[in-house]
Amino acid sequence: MARRSINWPLPAVAVLALAYGLFGEFIPGEFGHPGLPLGSFLGTLTIAEGGLWGKLTGVSVNIVAVFVIFGAVLHAGEAGQGFKNLATATAGRLKGGAAKVSVLSSALFGSISGSASANVASTGSFTLPAMTRLGYPKALAAAVEAVASSGGQIMPPLMGAGAFVMVELTGIPYTGIMAASFFPAVLFFLTVWVGINAFASRMELKSLESEQQPSMRKVWITMIFFAIPFFILLERMLHGQYTPQFSACIAMLAALLLLLWDDTLSLSLSRTSSRLRSVCLNAGKQVSLIASIILCASIIIGVLGQTGLGVKITSTVISASGNLVWPALLLTALACLLLGMEVPTTAAYVICVSVAGPALQELGLPLLITHLFIFWYALLSTITPPVCGTVFIAAGMVEETNWLKVAGYAMSLGVGLYLVPIGMVAQSDIIHLLDKPFDATLAFIQLALSLTAISYGLISAVSLLPRFLLLAAGMTGLLV
């Protein structure tokens, strides 16, 4: 099932982990292990909580599956159209408006999908034709959509499976994870927005034409289809003090009821029946995919724990970094990038945080920042060659054959994906929106100005010296 759902790399890593557990005693040197009794090894993996039925599987069944079904219900109705209309009405008239619509719609849609690939396929179906029709270079249009869609897993309120796994691994409530992720996610999309501004000035990109703008009546009607479920979800979690999964179930009931109507507020039982079938199919596919990821990751983590390999890797990271946090962060970021090239984001995050997380915490990095840093860098493979999955999807949708050009644009627009985690480490107040809102806001403003300067320094058409000064000022503000 895992190979069919997520292809071969992660199942292959799980098989290699099993082989290491069985035959690692024959490996010479410090990375071997003394050997494990076969019954104890397999029993722990298959029966005890240290393997397949551990806390990762528990959170995927109890929480992740509920939110996946909730997202499928929203996606089957008019919520996607509501996101599109709101984004178009808000940004369509601005300079580079078609690209900015892509950013806003991807941010909104990503908040329920939590999947970069699904985000590209859904929002790209209307943003990419709009951009190419207005004369945007195909490579740039594809890059905008690829980058904007990569933010779905970091944008509250849903954020994909990784956020729920983070809840279980850190012991921090889901509302705390959402609050900590809010400002960093806004910074990411702000950086993309600023990059589009720079490209719009450089390439004279056009806004959307007036006939492509939805009427305000249409905007307000379609907003109902996502605003009501979102309000119920957040109100129940924040003020009702209900668990995330129970809050999602209540919001899901409202979303299911809204499936009865379309954007003209007409009722149709046959259309509702078709939408319910779509919910079942899409939710089933997503749940099976997440189950495959979680079960493979659980095997790997179980082997790391039983053999002591995780402790050995942690010691290696600490010694290789010279007991300094920034070199350790660099090594961790490289490991996340390399692992993320072959396995899904959630699996890359879980594996990396299991082996590198203890080292970073031992060097003084706070628990939540450690997890957010690793999770963000596990996302890099979505836009970074040679894998860059969203780049390939978006490039194919606009028939752009030079995918490296698309990736180059995507990396310059998505510089926030590389730098915001560094900003979280240097300006740690930014994640404390709940307990230190004033300090968090000040850190947000400082990082926003820094990332704006860096983005303009990378993309704008000004001469070399001003660009260098912008980059220097931006990096100084980011780190100091």
Explain what you see.
By secondary structure, this protein is mainly alpha-helical. The protein has one domain. The chain has 23 helices and no strands. It has helices at residues 2-6, 9-23, 38-46, 55-76, 79-91, 97-113, 116-133, 138-149, 161-170, 174-203, 216-238, 244-258, 269-307, 309-320, 325-340, 345-355, 357-362, 367-378, 389-397, 403-413, 415-426, 437-459, 464-479. Helix 4 (55-76) packs antiparallel against helix 9 (161-170) and helix 6 (97-113) packs antiparallel against helix 10 (174-203). It is globular and about 70 Å long. It comes from marine metagenome. Keywords: Membrane, Transmembrane, Transmembrane helix. It holds the Pfam family DctM. Residues 2-415 form the TRAP C4-dicarboxylate transport system permease DctM subunit domain. The chain crosses the membrane at residues 52-74, 182-200, 220-238, 244-262, 283-304, 324-341, 348-368, 374-394, 406-424, 444-465.
Task: Note the overall shape.
Answer: globular
Q: Name the poorly predicted regions.
A: none
Range of helix content? over 70%
Total discrete domains: 1
Specify the structural class: mainly alpha
Strand content: under 5%
Q: How many angstroms separate the termini?
A: 48 Å
Number of strands: 0
Largest sheet: none
Q: How many helices?
A: 23
Q: Rg to the nearest angstrom?
A: 23 Å
N to C succession of SSEs = HHHHHHHHHHHHHHHHHHHHHHH
Mean pLDDT: 87
Protein name: TRAP C4-dicarboxylate transport system permease DctM subunit domain-containing protein
Keywords: Membrane, Transmembrane, Transmembrane helix
Pfam families: DctM (PF06808)
InterPro entries: DctM, TRAP_DctM-Dct_fused
